[in-house]
Write a structure and sequence with these properties.
This protein has 386 residues and is α/β, with parallel strands linked by helices. 39% of the residues lie in helices and 16% in strands. Helix 10 crosses helix 11. The longest helix has 20 residues.
């Protein structure tokens, strides 16, 4: 199936601080981007969208793709499934696009998946981490590592470094799913688990649970909680004099957690699919800083960069010089045959390898641990989990 491009002005939401892009010209490849640009999750999309703009500028300066320039049509998903669905329907039924990047939020990605599957349009989700993202759809790819991968990374690190391990999870789908993975890995590793506590996401007071972890003598806590709950865990632990090593998922490094915790999360570690010290990442970060006078610490810019780069490489094989349309079946086949792509995401020598049955970009070998240190995020280096 071919998806036509649009020839109207492409605007990036003013809430994200971007100016209007130039109108798409005949022959341009228009890439639809479903990205949060407003509300509490705007920070997720900000650096990723800037990275995509920069990458598109680079590709266009090099001659584009088969002579076609890339234009980005970025629409605000608001981390709201209804908004994401409306955008997806517009992309496939209205304006038409040559490719889709996003959504960023997991619930949004799951909501739009059947729309792109029915329309037979390839979708590369950028920052969505739910384990269900790529299930039951050959048209969806996942650039960020799934929650299960992060949970496995945490569990292995805990088994390597914790003498008395505790697990704390919320009872959301994320928390229960991550707990199942952590529990399985720790049992396989014969780790010494001394306590397991659960909270309700958004619970006002974590004192009862933290006291039980402290009384159990835990020296390492695998904390499968997000956002404000992560900040509350750090604050409560500090208030109660509980000095165990706290370890959480990538979301622990988000600005809202660092702000709400008021320094209490200093020393906590978290899983991450991004190593700013590897050459590919340094090159991107240097170009990003030159273009935007900023240097992002979280992985979102890297994910946006790699998503567009992977799409562009596949589009070179699927598109033709004489048409602004891309055959989506050919695009899917090109992505399915991606092998040995070393992107900005991932750590060490990890590469992205897709197949017809595997649309997940990163596994455990592509993730590592970083530490919160003041306003910096420090790679642990040799302490990387097995």
């Amino acid at each position: 199936m071919k998806v036509p491009s649009i020839f109207s002005a492409l605007l990036l939401a003013s809430a994200a601080g971007f100016a209007a892009l130039t109108p798409a010209a005949a022959g341009d490849y228009v890439v639809g981007v479903i990205v949060p640009q407003s509300g509490q999750t705007a920070f997720i999309g900000d650096s990723a969208l800037k990275a995509m703009i920069l990458r598109a500028e680079q590709i266009n300066a090099e001659g584009g793709i088969n002579g076609h320039k890339i234009k980005l049509d970025a629409q605000d998903e608001k981390c709201n499934p209804t908004s994401a669905v409306n955008i997806a329907q517009e992309f496939v039924n209205g304006s038409g696009v040559a490719g889709v990047l996003g959504p960023f939020c997991s619930a949004d990605s799951i909501a739009v998946k059947p729309i792109f599957a029915r329309a037979k349009v390839v979708d590369l989700t950028v920052a969505s981490t739910a384990d269900a993202i790529t299930k039951d759809s050959k048209w969806t790819f996942q650039i960020a590592a799934p929650d299960g991968v992060y949970a496995q990374t945490l569990a292995n690190y805990a088994a390597d470094h914790g003498k008395k391990i505790a697990i704390l999870n919320d009872t959301s789908a994320f928390g229960l799913g991550a707990y199942a993975t952590v529990d399985k890995v720790l049992k396989q590793r014969n780790a010494n688990v001394v306590a397991h506590e659960q909270i309700t996401a958004g619970q006002a007071d974590l004192t009862p649970q933290v006291l039980k972890l402290k009384q159990a003598g835990a020296d390492f806590v695998v904390a499968l909680v997000l956002g404000g709950d992560a900040a509350k865990l750090c604050l409560t632990s500090r208030d109660l004099g509980f000095k165990a090593q706290l370890a959480g998922q990538t979301a622990w490094s988000f600005p809202n957690v660092l702000s709400l915790s008021k320094g209490a999360c200093d020393g906590a570690i978290f899983t991450d699919p991004f190593d700013p010290d590897k050459p590919e990442a340094k090159s991107m970060l240097d170009a990003y800083q030159k273009r935007w006078n900023d240097r992002p610490q979280s992985y979102f810019a890297a994910a946006g960069w790699d998503a567009l780069s992977l799409w562009a490489e596949a589009a070179k094989k699927a598109g033709t010089a004489g048409s602004d349309e891309i055959d989506q079946e050919k695009l899917l086949d090109a992505l399915d045959n991606t092998k040995g792509y070393k992107g900005v995401m991932g750590v060490g020598d990890a590469t992205i390898n897709f197949s017809a049955t595997d649309h997940i970009a990163l596994d455990v070998d592509g993730t590592h641990l970083r530490r919160i240190q003041g306003d910096k995020l420090i790679s642990l280096g040799d302490e990387k989990s097995k």
